[in-house]
Amino acid sequence: MNTNASSEFEFSFLDEGFSARDIVEQKINESSSTDDRDAFYVCDLGDVLKKHLRWVRALPRITPFYAVKCNDSRAVVATLASLGTGFDCASKTEIQLVQSLGVDPSRIIYANPCKQVSQIKYASAHGVQMMTFDSEVELMKVARCHENAKLVLRIATDDSKAMCRLSVKFGAQLKACRGLLERAKDLGLDVVGVSFHVGSGCTDPQTYSQAIADARCVFDMGVELDFNMDLLDIGGGFPGSDDAELKFEEITVVINTALDKYFPPDAGVKVIAEPGRFYVASAYTLVVNIIAKKVLMDDDSSSDEDEGTSDRTLMYYVNDGVYGSFNCILYDHAHCLPILHKKPKPDETMYPCSIWGPTCDGLDRIVEQCDLPDLQVGDWLVFENMGAYTVAASSTFNGFQRPDMHYVMSRHVWQHVQEINIKGLPSPAEMTSAFEMVACCSRSTCLELPSKQCQTRVV
């Protein structure tokens, strides 16, 4: 493995035959020879490319505008920029990040319906025209501050089947849409389309179908008012790992069917989406170290009995927690599963355990209950699928620093990203072979998913 510094970010090439999992092992071995056994991430950028090819195959009509809020790593954003995606930005800072990578303003949608006046002015000054709204007050701000805005009306959806509901905060009810469109007309504003978001962690694909049908109704209202409605934004809510309750392809079948019905290809409507976790969740592996341990004895157990399976509970403390990477547990309803680094012996006793973060806050609990062997201070635990809504919202509360990042990709993946950047996506005939090549170069595992929430897996 050797380090390569592109013009935008630093990463390491994987040697032939090596995967991101091998880099995890290498970093653990390097750290284990010192006392500085800090938590760290390994991010496989090849996994990001694999997800992009998967998206293009499943949703060929829909241009992804990556939701930067999910993970604002420069390496991830630069990789996606090279692949030609658009970007969903919610603030001036996110717009600055994306434009610093040379992304054209036409590939940015300012998808925050509640914007600060100064940041609307910033978007105007830097050529970002597409932006969402869901209220009359927002229309009035845009009318004062952005003469070239291309507005997208965000509508509320039924997000009752989502883990993280968004329509309680954003989106106009259907009954309010005509009034908002009429107000936009009075203000001389240009409304070009409709957007919605079914919520993160959506568990019912039919929610997309109903939202697309509702968007069609609002489109028709806009056409009646002589707006040139030519953009549909179907938001996010797509799963980022294959162990999700609802599979990505189950969602895409419903979406494609609804689009063909309400927005057929000859309708002249551009369709975009705002995937976040889909692109980055599975690319990141977090490795933490056990820094402390407590043994709780069962009061009812007999002291002269042989130490067995039920006389104790173990508490493990690791060097990242809910104020850091595991904030996803509080804010994103994530269930983080521990994976053992050291393979246990076949007859090794497993104990009921809990896993805690390093801060002095009693809420800093990562796993309430799981079964683990009798581990020691200095041992490692691995958490997969840690790329979405983790590092982006982490803090340094109590003085604990964020984990180091190690970005990797194979030379084949790097070459493929460069080819797409220059020539565009491969033809449909070439897409399957490209996808298979990237899948072989990316991280893989033959381990089965746990059968229950806190069951341990072994690297």
UniProtKB/TrEMBL annotation:
Reactions catalysed, as given in the entry: L-ornithine + H(+) = putrescine + CO2
Keyword terms: Decarboxylase, Lyase, Phosphoprotein, Polyamine biosynthesis, Pyridoxal phosphate
Protein name stated in the entry: ornithine decarboxylase
Modified positions (N6-(pyridoxal phosphate)lysine) in chain numbering: K69
Name of the gene encoding the protein in the UniProt record: odc1
GO cellular component, one term: cytoplasm
Organism: Gouania willdenowi
Record flagged with keyword Phosphoprotein: yes
Pfam families registered for this protein in UniProt: Orn_Arg_deC_N, Orn_DAP_Arg_deC
Domain Orn/DAP/Arg decarboxylase 2 C-terminal: 40-387
Keyword field contains Lyase: yes
Broad EC category: lyase
GO BP terms: putrescine biosynthetic process from arginine, via ornithine
EC number per UniProt: 4.1.1.17
Cofactor: pyridoxal 5'-phosphate
One example GO MF annotation: ornithine decarboxylase activity
Ranges where the Orn/DAP/Arg decarboxylase 2 N-terminal domain occurs: 45-281
Active site: C360
Family statement drawn from the similarity comment of this UniProt entry: Belongs to the Orn/Lys/Arg decarboxylase class-II family.
Pathway assignment: Amine and polyamine biosynthesis; putrescine biosynthesis via L-ornithine pathway; putrescine from L-ornithine: step 1/1
Entry function: Catalyzes the first and rate-limiting step of polyamine biosynthesis that converts ornithine into putrescine, which is the precursor for the polyamines, spermidine and spermine. Polyamines are essential for cell proliferation and are implicated in cellular processes, ranging from DNA replication to apoptosis.
